[in-house]
Amino acid sequence: MDIGNINGTTTLHNGVTMPVLGLGVYKAKEGSEVIESVHHALDAGYRHIDTASFYENESGVGEAIKSSKIPREEIFVTTKVWNDDQGFEETLKAFDKSLEKLGLDYIDLYLIHWPVPGKYVETWKALEKLYSEGKVKAIGVSNFLEHQLKDILNDCSIKPMVLQNEFHPRLVQQSLIDFCKRSQIQYEAWSPLMRGEVFKNPLLKELAKKYGKTVAQLVIRWDLQKGVVTIPKSVHRNRIFENADVFDFEISEENMRRIDALDREERTGAHPDDFMDHFRNS
């Protein structure tokens, strides 16, 4: 994994290169807000945009990419199939809708958003079909644990290239990261800043001051040094630029371990084993 500058990439097990830093657009409103956010990110040097059908802003992301004047092949675009659209045929239809909304000819990375019980293996087989047809450059999963990954590895012909999970200093899941490394699955972080909770942590504030950085920059750098692709979300130009300013310092091994030790298995989102109730009640 190259983390020398904002152009750094990691190579997935199928040879596709994925930028190590991206912009997440969860909760960015469709229309001008998400379009401007993507433009800010591209201006800052990001070449990786992460959306999902559930976010209801794929059209804006596509419009921003088209109007950016940056060649399509230089921008890595991720989207995801939502829970209600899982199953083999349903996923194929959902993919076509996402592709149409984005206005693109292909998707760089297509993910299963959550492991819907009884459906995610069939959903994965649909992703394999999309991949084999060249409609997506890479396929992966989001919000999966080791046992759900093993279901796919044991029953399918193509192993996931990426696992995107909630990941921050309070939720490290090192054994899962290690499993992914052994399986050649790239780990990726959503909610790397724990929805702002990291800013309150005394150790992170202390270390940020030591390195002359913000807490957000410290945590994003920690992600990258752990070999984790990260997609901090923001709609504010200054924050988007700030989050990219993480390539001019290095956290020592000792301080990496101190940040690791903050792990408390705390989640801001649902647990992958009981998320259905979470979304049913929300």
Secondary-structure element order, N to C: EEEHEHEHEHEHEHEHHEHHH
Major sheet characteristics: 8 strands, parallel
Radius of gyration: 18 Å
Number of helices in the DSSP assignment? 11
Strand proportion, as a percent range, falls in 5-15%
Global morphology? globular
Number of domains: 1
Named CATH architecture:
Alpha-Beta Barrel
Distance between the termini: 37 Å
Name the CATH superfamily classification.
Answer: NADP-dependent oxidoreductase domain
Question: What is the fold named in CATH at topology level?
Answer: TIM Barrel
Spatial ordering of strands, largest sheet:
3-4-5-6-7-8-9-10
Average pLDDT level:
97
- Would you state the CATH class? Alpha Beta
Low-confidence stretches: none
Q: Helix amount, in percent?
A: 40-55%
DSSP strand tally? 10
Structural class: alpha/beta
Site (Lowers pKa of active site Tyr): 80
Family: Belongs to the aldo/keto reductase family.
GO molecular function, one term: oxidoreductase activity, acting on the CH-OH group of donors, NAD or NADP as acceptor
Binding site for substrate: 113
